Amino acid sequence: MRHHFVHCNPWRKKVTTSESQRLQQLENAEATRNALSRYCLALDIDDLDMLRATFAEDVVLHREPADHLRGREAVVAFFAEALSHRVDHRKHFHTNAVVTHTGADTASAHTYFFAFHHNHGELGLAFGDYRFNTRIENGVALITELTIGIDVPIAPVHTMLGN
Q1: Mean per-residue pLDDT for 117-124?
Q2: Model-level pTM?
Q3: Which residues contact 146 (CB under 8 A, 6 or more apart)?
Q4: Contact 124/150 with Cβ under 8 angstroms?
Q5: What is the pLDDT of residues 124-145, one digit of tens each?
């Protein structure tokens, strides 16, 4: 006697359209966080190619209230100049990211940052916030707009401690 068993996996179910959309939003939010992580890593390891690949072609960088850079090459040139001031070690961290879904392939985010620079035995610290927008292109979130708010510019840590 042959038995016919119907394979039934109780954990597998058809994904609905709303679940599929929610999953896409979660993937886009994670891709947005990864875009900023790639940006920070590129700065830390002085990798201009990685930095270039982090930005959309039409990126806008807001530096001061009236000073904006437009376009990937202009933004990368700005950071190339900033990175030309060598330090022994540089580490950027971002935290408390809040990502908002703004469209099928777009998001905006706000996160705090702090950065350590170590040079010739002296440790410097800066902190502030990033506000940025991303757009998914070919499965990767690219930064389309970046505003860097600096609460405390790079300063030796010992000066912040009152020593």
Answers
A1: 88
A2: 0.84
A3: 39, 55, 59, 60, 61, 62, 75, 130, 131, 132
A4: no
A5: 899 999 999 999 999 899 999 9
Q: Could you tell me what percent of the chain has a pLDDT over 70?
A: 88
CA–CA distance, 53 with 23 (Å, rounded to integer): 25
Cβ(54)–Cβ(39) below 8 Å: yes
CA distance 18 to 13: 14
Question: Mind listing the pLDDT tens digit for each residue in 27-64?
Answer: 999 999 999 999 999 999 999 999 999 999 999 999 77
113-117: long-range contacts, CB 8 A cutoff, minimum separation 24: 113/40, 115/90, 115/91, 115/154, 116/89, 116/90, 116/91, 117/87, 117/89, 117/90, 117/154
CA distance 92 to 114: 6
Q: Write down all domains in the chain, each with its CATH number in brackets.
A: 17-160 (3.10.450.50)
Dihedral sign, Cα of residue 20, residue 21, residue 26, residue 27: positive
